Amino acid sequence: MFTFEPSTEASQLLTDIYRPRRVSDFIGLDSVKRLASKLIAKPFSSYYIFRGPSGMGKTTFSLALANEMGAELHHIPSQDCTVDVIERVHRACFYMPSQGKRCHMILIDEADLMTKASRDCLLSMMDGTRPAPLTIIVMTCNEVEKFEDRFQSRCMTFNFSSQGVSKPIAELLANIWTIEAPADAELPDFARITQDSKNNVRLALMKLQQKIICA
Asked: Hey, is 101 helix, strand or coil?
């Protein structure tokens, strides 16, 4: 879920340096990658829930998708997702996207923490009675239980799972170790780091960085 190509960012954290910039950089996520390829080729109005544990790259994937899709991004953290903000963003999506952009994309982080009033407002936005043209809505969350059935029925849910990715994550750690660690440093057990991190890439990278610092 992190690219092999180091970025030029000033941050020294591996989680920043190796954050994916393209959809193709992500490990696993085959079904959501297929969705992304469709949207990148031809964006269409649609609504999605990206569900999974923290550290699985839900927000980062959404940002990469918006960039490759050429979307004007409206990024709303959950704590800012008020009725007023949703209505303001909704109005903005009725206008043509900024020059050079192909569509609008609304990204709401930790959408399961929204208030009921905010969810109801968003639900009316997704309702067929007044949808914004060529607007894609992506909501990230850990669980979907707080979303009513009528809410979920308007969205496609994609799971960001940690299953089946232990080997590529260990390989990623090994590649990053080769780049970042001293040449004479003793190799750690990358498979063990992955296992201890429960296939959470962000946590695995933090553990790897600690070992690099102490090498």
From this structure: coil
